[in-house]
Amino acid sequence: MTPVNKPPEVPGTSVPLVCLYLSFALLIVFTIKNIRVFGFAVILAGVLCNLLVIGANGGMPVSKAALRGSDQGRFLGDLENNPYPKHHLATDDDLLRFLGDVIPLPEPIAQAISIGDILTYGGVGLVVVGAMRGPSRRREPATGTPEVARAG
Fold first, then answer.
1. Rounded Cα gap, residues 66 and 103, in angstroms
2. Domain ranges of the chain
3. Is residue 67 within 8 Å of 105, Cβ to Cβ?
4. Are 61 and 98 in contact (CB under 8 A)?
5. Mean per-residue pLDDT of the chain
6. What is the pLDDT at residue 41?
7. Residue 70 predicted with pLDDT over 80
8. Alpha helical stretches, state H, the chain
9. How far is CA 127 from the centre of its chain?
10. What are phi and psi of 112, to 5 degrees?
């Protein structure tokens, strides 16, 4: 996907961005192959949300408020002056900003996260819960005549 509203990338940043898109392609293939496993549909939704906002903007927009609220204000200068291939400081020109890293998690986590991250991590949690519960068992249909245990 080509960013709609961003100028051409600075030379040297296109290779990391291509690698990022390839990693998303692999994640999507992996989640689709495992879609029948409890929780993978939620993981897929999160991965697609993140890919959508990154693809639309040539990287993940990160809000100033989320950086400050997550105790990462020290990175503001880095994102303003040298945006990383995956992240950049959100501007009014960014599309789908609500899908960007706009949710602050303060210390001890200290991260700015997105709706896609919440879905992805929540899906991973569901996969773990599903694995802990074990395989589901199909119940046999009732025949109408209950079996009675007899002593003796």
1. 6
2. 46-133
3. no
4. no
5. 84
6. 97
7. yes
8. 14-33, 40-57, 64-69, 76-81, 115-133
9. 15
10. -100, 125
